[in-house]
Specification:
Number of domains: 2
Structural class: alpha+beta
CATH class of the largest domain: Alpha Beta
Oligomer: single chain
Number of helices: 14
CATH topology of the largest domain: Ribosomal Protein S5, domain 2
Shape: globular
Helix content: 40-55%
Radius of gyration: 22 Å
Length: 424
């Protein structure tokens, strides 16, 4: 459909119904986002192009903190914040993407090899996704797109995964006949992040964004992760899902994140395995005296967290399926304590002045007063924490958290039933 035709359609109930599954009660405000996106495309490229619209959501991790890189289990969901794109095919063998607020990013498809100069850049993610599709037999061609996102960098909702899934959906739709399923698109995004962007990444972020809804994923065989959707409405449990920004930057924390899988996989290597999921818990426990001497106490504690949180995911799923909200909340709190005590991803090493995540968690504890639940969210060290807040407390909780941490700190989110998708 031509850009001008899309703009006419956006004034109709038909378009609102088209995007309502993505945004629910936030549909009208997102209608305005799509109009602005088309305006950006017209001023950046052309007002006469044939346009296709795409969306990929952010994700929230609900259970299984740092378990995915050890082929563990996770509980995660897509949320109603997303990255959206207006894209059009071209014949210049070049991908050009303008993300709102950032410079134009262009890659030449004649060379899809890893570029060391692109490490930690958007270009690396685009090139990596294109390269992986090409290796699967896809004849990747040129396209141009503009992107707008409410999944902000550093939000803890995995803006990079949403972007990877967005680009993956564009290439899949334009050049691969929509043959890649949601899990494969997630794996392609992970490949781009690991091999091109240069950041160690498990598969949870991309899978949650790509598949959508509330899901549990078992990565025991990472080539064929087992994904199960759960039919759960937290509001029916009397809960609101909140993400609280602690306002600490992820910058310069790559080594902190990377140390977690490195330490855990060194321990796995002691048993002749690659990841902890392949090591029976009993064998690990029996070897703790030797492991402490060889790898140090922090590595051992982080492994203890993995085994506990991996088991907790199964227990969380069982509790949700039974409607046992008290048990579910107790497990969320257990996970949070384990992350702080054993995984130790709350305060960066040596940070004795700035401990933003710890402060945010302490405030959750104080404001909830034993109700609901809270935990670190995602990678940790910076970014966000997560709270399940009783509906009757949500207004006071949000107001007070924003007063104490700053305006815009507390975000109330909904689980989105649709993952990465072609909007139309």
């Amino acid at each position: 459909m031509k850009l001008s035709e899309w703009k006419e359609k956006m004034n109709t109930e038909e378009f609102l119904e088209m995007i309502r599954p993505l945004y629910a009660e936030k549909t009208e405000e997102n209608d305005d986002r799509y109009r602005a996106l088309l305006d950006l495309y017209a001023t950046t490229f052309s007002g006469e192009d044939e346009i296709t619209l795409f969306s990929a959501p952010g994700r929230t991790e609900i259970g299984g903190n740092h378990t995915d890189h050890e082929n563990g289990r996770v509980l995660a969901a897509s949320v109603d914040l997303d990255s959206i794109a207006a894209a059009s095919r071209t014949d210049d063998n070049r991908i050009s993407i303008l993300s709102e607020g950032y410079p134009m990013c262009m890659i030449d498809l004649d060379d899809l090899s890893v570029q060391t100069s692109e490490v930690n850049t958007t270009a690396a993610l685009i090139r990596g996704v294109a390269a992986r599709f090409a290796s699967l037999g896809c004849n990747v061609g040129g396209f141009r797109a503009v992107v707008s996102s409410t999944v902000l960098p550093g939000s803890g909702l995995s803006s990079s995964a949403a972007f990877e899934v967005l680009v993956g959906n564009i290439i899949n739709h334009f050049f691969f006949g929509d043959r890649a399923d949601a899990v494969l698109i997630a794996q392609i995004g992970q490949y781009a992040e690991n091999e091109y962007f240069g950041k160690p990444s498990g598969l949870m972020d991309q899978t949650a964004s790509s598949v959508g809804n509330l899901i549990t994923i078992d990565f025991e065989d990472p080539a064929k992760p087992v994904v199960k959707k759960l039919d759960v409405d937290f509001e029916k449990f009397g809960l609101k899902l909140c993400i609280i920004n602690c306002w600490a930057s992820h910058a310069d924390l790559t080594d902190e994140y990377a140390a977690v899988p490195v330490e855990e996989q060194k321990v796995a290597g002691y048993f002749g395995k690659k990841v902890l999921r392949q090591v029976p818990k009993e064998e690990f426990m029996n070897a703790i005296p030797k492991l402490r001497k060889e790898f140090g106490d922090r590595a051992v504690l982080r492994c203890i967290h993995f085994y506990g949180d991996n088991e907790r995911v199964s227990a969380q799923v069982a509790a949700l399926e039974k409607g046992d909200v008290s048990r579910f909340l107790a497990l969320v709190n257990e996970s949070g304590r384990s992350s702080w005590m054993y995984l130790q991803n709350i305060v960066p090493l040596g940070a004795n002045v700035h401990q933003e995540m710890a402060v945010a968690l302490a405030l959750c504890d104080e404001l909830l007063q034993g109700k609901g639940a809270f935990r670190v969210h995602g990678g940790g060290f910076a970014g966000t924490c997560q709270a399940f807040v009783p509906v009757e407390m949500i207004d006071a909780f949000t107001k007070r958290m924003n007063e104490l941490l700053g305006a815009g700190s507390c975000h109330v989110l909904n689980i989105r039933p649709v993952g990465g998708t072609v909007v139309g």
